Amino acid sequence: MKFFENVAKKVFNKEGIKILEGHVAYSPEEAVAICSEMGVPVVLKAQVLTGGRGKAGGVKFADNPGEALKVADEILGMEIKGEKVKHLLIEEKADIQQEYFLSISIDRSERRPLIMVSKEGGVEIENLAKTNPEKIIKYYPQPLIDFLPYEAREIARKMEVPSELIGPMGDVIWKLYNVFDKYDCEIAEINPLVLTPDGLIAADAKLEVENDALYRHQDLVNMLHYKKKAVDFVKLDGDIAVIGNGAGLTLTAMDMIKLNGGEPATFLDIGGGASEHVINQALNIVLNYDPVKVVFLNVLGGITKADDVARGVINALKQADREVHIVIRLTGTNEEEGQKLLEEAGIPYEISMENAAKKAVDLCNELKAKE
Ligand code: GDP
Ligand code: MN
């Protein structure tokens, strides 16, 4: 069974191989939220089980959340070698000085594992294998005895890496072999393993586990159960972003906007019990949606706590890189604390939904009159 890069990387990392900070996104909006939170620049990578994504346009970079939205939208609609892209891995962009190739597989004719490495890794590895096979170093470890760190260093030396890298490179090769052995792999591969100012990092990861051994690795299979989406987001035609907790309340807020002559730009339900983090994420999504002129945040705290909402709002506004016009209605659980936090941060709020909706529409009309 083949595993996606994001799962493979977690497994490699568990065995001590360095990876970059990364998060999975299922929609362009989620990609924006992740980028805003991580800071940029980032790399966005199609999660498919085939290789060659880079050449097929499935690996792209973004320098700001707006770019991330565009790029994520492009990649999520793609098909790579017949496989539809359903999710992305978003990582901080590595500052690459050199790309190496490390691969461990089963050589069936030799009936034992085969380690292959090269100091010329990256997307051209298949061509290199054809044109310059001598640049790929092969080593057959003894399957019945332990693969030892000195053997791994010997491989690194044959790779002709700079002398100060022989130790660290040997260490990664040894750890990758441990992954291969421990997880009953058919393939464990890092292409490229990249040299950065922070050392050697796995920038890609391939992991294939022998099907008959899967029952021993339920932990891997469990990692395939993806998390549920945190927010429900629908784009509409207007210019007032409506965010609420709970579908009913959000729909009511939209009706109130309409009643006052406004047009909603979004329906965004943050759900019950939304954390500070989710609020921050929701605001980042709408703030990166261009048609939005005014944000109407309508929260009636129940399981959702007003003070968490206030903290999420304050953080999101601090990080925003554009002027934000927001009208907040905040009441319910912990309202005193939440309202106090907003006051201290100099952010006005309303108690009544009717007043807040009217204020949002008026504000939007004012802004449009100025344009
Ligand atoms: P593959 O084409 O499916 O093997 O996808 P990879 O994950 O190997 O990415 C392809 C290529 O994109 C790599 O060989 C790198 O040259 C480049 N790449 C991937 N991640 C990064 C990154 O974080 N920073 C930079 N600068 N390049 C990257
Ligand atoms: Mn690769």
Automatic annotation (TrEMBL):
Species name: Methanobrevibacter millerae
Pathway field: Carbohydrate metabolism; tricarboxylic acid cycle; succinate from succinyl-CoA (ligase route): step 1/1
Gene Ontology annotations for the cellular component aspect, listed alphabetically: succinate-CoA ligase complex
ATP-grasp domain segment(s): 9-222
Family that this chain belongs to: Belongs to the succinate/malate CoA ligase beta subunit family.
Gene name for this UniProt entry: sucC
Pfam family, one: ATP-grasp_2
Subunit structure as annotated in this protein's UniProt entry: Heterotetramer of two alpha and two beta subunits.
This enzyme's EC code(s): 6.2.1.5
PANTHER family tied to this protein: SUCCINATE--COA LIGASE [GDP-FORMING] SUBUNIT BETA, MITOCHONDRIAL, SUCCINYL-COA SYNTHETASE BETA CHAIN
Alphabetized UniProt keyword annotations: ATP-binding, Ligase, Magnesium, Metal-binding, Nucleotide-binding, Tricarboxylic acid cycle
Entry protein name: Succinate--CoA ligase [ADP-forming] subunit beta
Gene3D superfamilies: ATP-grasp fold, A domain, ATP-grasp fold, B domain, Succinyl-CoA synthetase domains
Protein residues bound to substrate: N245, G302, I303, T304
Keyword Membrane: no
Binding-site residues for Mg(2+), renumbered to this chain: N191, D204
Protein role: Succinyl-CoA synthetase functions in the citric acid cycle (TCA), coupling the hydrolysis of succinyl-CoA to the synthesis of either ATP or GTP and thus represents the only step of substrate-level phosphorylation in the TCA. The beta subunit provides nucleotide specificity of the enzyme and binds the substrate succinate, while the binding sites for coenzyme A and phosphate are found in the alpha subunit.
Note accompanying the cofactor annotation: Binds 1 Mg(2+) ion per subunit.
Cofactor entry: Mg(2+)
Catalytic activity, as annotated: succinate + ATP + CoA = succinyl-CoA + ADP + phosphate; GTP + succinate + CoA = succinyl-CoA + GDP + phosphate
Biological process annotations from GO: succinyl-CoA metabolic process; tricarboxylic acid cycle
The keyword Magnesium is annotated on this UniProt entry: yes
GO molecular function, one term: succinate-CoA ligase (GDP-forming) activity
Coiled coil: none
Sequence positions that bind ATP: K45, G52, R53, G54, E91, A94, E99
